[in-house]
Amino acid sequence: MYIVMLGAPGSGKGTAAKILAKKTNLPHISTGDMFREQIKKGTELGKLAESYMSNGKLVPDEVTIGIVKDRLNSDDTKEGVILDGFPRTKMQAEALDEILKEQGKKVDIVPELIIPDDVIVDRILNRQTCSNKECGAIYNTKYKPSKVAGVCDVCGAPLSSRTDDNEETIKNRLEVYRENSKDLIEYYKEKGVLTQITPKDPTAENASEQAVEEILSAKL
Ligand code: AMP
What we know:
three-stranded antiparallel sheet, binds adenosine monophosphate, alpha/beta, globular
C-alpha cells in the first residue's frame, strides 16, 4: 500500500503518518526529516537543503526526487510506504509515479488533511519534537503537551522546536503549500485516489488519531 499524505505544514500529517506507519507496519518516509538529518550530519546535501529550508522555500525538485528515488529502492519499501511531505509539486508527483511504475506499483490512496488556518498557525508555533531520532514523537504545548515540560513521554529525551517553526517562515510555508497543492490535489483527484479528511475537532489532543481512523475507514 503506497500512501501519500497531503496537508499544510502543521495540519498534523506528520503525526498521522507516524501513527499510520505503526498501524500498517509500513515505513514512514518524510523528506523534511531526511533533509534535517543531512543538515545535522553537515553533508553537502544538508547545506544545500538548509539554504532553502531556512526561509520556507522548497528544495529543488531534482534534489528531492533523487533522495526519494534512492529511498524507494530499499528493500523495506517493497510492500508500500507512507510518504509524508513528498510529493509537494506536480513534477514530484509525476516522478513518483514513474519510480513506482518501474516497480509495477502505484499510489493507492492520498489522504488530504483539511485543518483551519488559525489552528495550523497555533499548532506550528507550539510544536515540539522529541530530539531522539528513533522516537520522533510530536507534542504541542497547547493542544498536546508532554507530561513533563520539555521531556518526551515516550523515551525521556529532551524536546526541541524546529528552527523553521517561526512566524516568519510559517506564512511563507503556508503560501508555498497552497500554491503547489492546487495542482497536486487536482492530479490525485483525477486519478481517483484523493480522500479529503476533516477531523471533527482539530484542536483535540487526539486529532491525529481521529484523522487516522478516518483514513483507515475510508479505503484501506
Ligand atoms: P516538512 O518537515 O515536511 O515541513 O519540510 C520542511 C522543509 O523541508 C520544507 O519547508 C522544504 O524546505 C523542505 N522539503 C521537505 N519536503 C520537500 C519536498 N518534497 N520538496 C521540496 N522541499 C521539501
